[in-house]
Automatic annotation (TrEMBL):
Alphabetical keyword list: Membrane, Transmembrane, Transmembrane helix
Record keyword Membrane present: yes
Coiled coil: none
Protein name: O-antigen ligase like membrane protein
Spans through the membrane: 7-25, 31-49, 61-86, 98-119, 168-195, 207-233, 245-267, 335-351, 363-382, 388-406
Protein species of origin: Eubacterium album
Length: 412
């Protein structure tokens, strides 16, 4: 019996999306996710090269993959410069960590483009199926371990402090809060709510399933980020003319940069500790890790950054078991003031601008709006989490916009 390529894709990513900690005792080494992703990329590129329009598709693949790599190539060029200027220690362990992160990113950027180019809009559906299968298994595992009664109780009161993971680390709340899957599902909530062209009950079912799984994962920053992304999209982007999208994205970009720079400055000044005490804000232990980084950056335009992955290496050297739950803070330390601003601008302004200028796709405007909306959501989660390196999250982040773009090219 011949197995469909779509079935192979779903099976590959059902395995690759298995959350950290495992399901039913099945856990994966971190690198297995990337090996499986690389296997899909090789298979997908081979399938694309066998099609009659392989020359056109090959050009599209090289064009967009090369564009996605630009920030990371710049980061590698930036790396030896800042290590020399700040006289930072560099050895084999540092080199291995940097190369490891770069190879992972290369694979992570290729996965969504190859899937979107081969399956077009169907890649969204197949990826959603893989996520749903995995999260359904997470739910089954949690019910078996903690009972249906606790599951129903949590589902009806997930917002209550008693379920806070730091206060109930061995509870059904912690079993259901699988970070990568939960945050990745947020993109599908946004897509099916705001952008899907389906006008039938199937779309409504997918939206409710996505919302249910997001609710059970219950990440407060995710819900806040989705709400802000929806409001900005409805107010600034929904009825925006194509030629004005670049202006609107520039305004949004500047707004995000101002908010994030303010956050970084507050962390540096220790005022975040005072705010946490004054308003009884529970940062779930994050303030300790933030304090570890504040001595490694300055709020000067001349701060050049410490180099790609440096913030991660800090904890290794300090032999601290904390995780720095803020990709915004880590990126500022790594890229510097101007580099940080350019990093945000790449996803909020420059990548949507490239989509807008794609004359071969009837979906170019829609793709640009999706990318801006998704970037707002992603960047806000970066404030208090490490979603910038999450496998499922980064796959969904790029796959959905590219699937819409390539579907528009097919229709032309």
């Amino acid at each position: 019996m011949k197995i469909k390529i779509s079935t192979i894709y779903i099976i590959i990513f059902c395995i690759a999306f298995i959350p950290t900690g495992g399901i039913f005792g099945i856990d994966l080494n971190y690198w297995i996710k990337y090996i499986l992703g690389a296997v899909w990329c090789v298979l997908g590129i081979q399938l694309i090269s066998n099609r009659k329009n392989k020359a056109r598709d090959g050009g599209i693949l090289r064009n967009y993959y090369g564009f996605l790599l630009i920030p990371f190539i710049v980061m590698l060029i930036h790396l030896p410069i800042v290590y020399f200027i700040y006289n930072q220690h560099f050895d084999g362990a540092v080199f291995n960590r940097i190369i490891s992160y770069f190879v992972q990113r290369c694979i992570l950027l290729a996965i969504p483009i190859v899937a979107a180019l081969y399956f077009k809009l169907n890649s969204i559906k197949y990826t959603f199926y893989a996520l749903c299968i995995d999260y359904s298994l997470v739910i089954m595992n949690a019910i078996i371990k903690y009972g249906i009664g606790n599951f129903v109780k949590f589902a009806l009161s997930a917002w209550r402090d008693e379920w806070n993971e730091w206060q109930a680390s061995n509870s059904i709340a912690s079993a259901l809060e699988v970070h990568d899957l939960t945050f990745a599902i947020g993109f599908f909530v946004l897509y099916y709510l705001l952008f899907s062209e389906q006008k039938n009950k199937v779309k409504d079912v997918k939206l409710w399933i996505a919302f249910l799984y997001m609710w059970l994962g219950f990440k407060r920053i995710e819900m806040l980020a989705i709400l802000i992304a929806i409001i900005v999209m409805k107010v600034m982007l929904k009825k925006c003319a194509k030629k004005k999208i670049n202006i609107k994205s520039a305004i949004i970009n500047v707004g995000l940069i101002v908010v994030f720079i303010a956050f970084i400055a507050i962390v540096k000044s220790n005022e975040i500790q005072d705010l946490a005490l004054q308003y009884a804000i529970n940062f779930n232990g994050r303030l300790h890790s933030y304090a570890l980084l504040k001595d490694y950056y300055s709020m000067s335009l001349l701060f050049l950054g410490r180099g790609y992955c440096y913030s991660t290496l800090v904890l290794d050297r300090l032999q601290d078991l904390s995780i720095i739950h803020s990709d915004i803070l880590k990126s500022f330390v790594d890229y510097g003031f101007i580099g940080f601003c350019l990093w945000i601008s790449y996803y909020v302004y420059f990548l949507p601008k490239k989509f807008i200028n794609e004359s071969k796709s009837s979906m170019s405007k829609k793709t640009a709006i999706i990318m801006i909306t998704f970037s707002i959501y992603a960047m806000i989660t970066y404030l208090t989490d490490n979603t910038n390196v999450y496998f499922c999250f980064q796959t969904a982040y790029l796959l959905i916009p590219f699937a819409v773009l390539f579907e528009g090219m097919k229709r032309e």
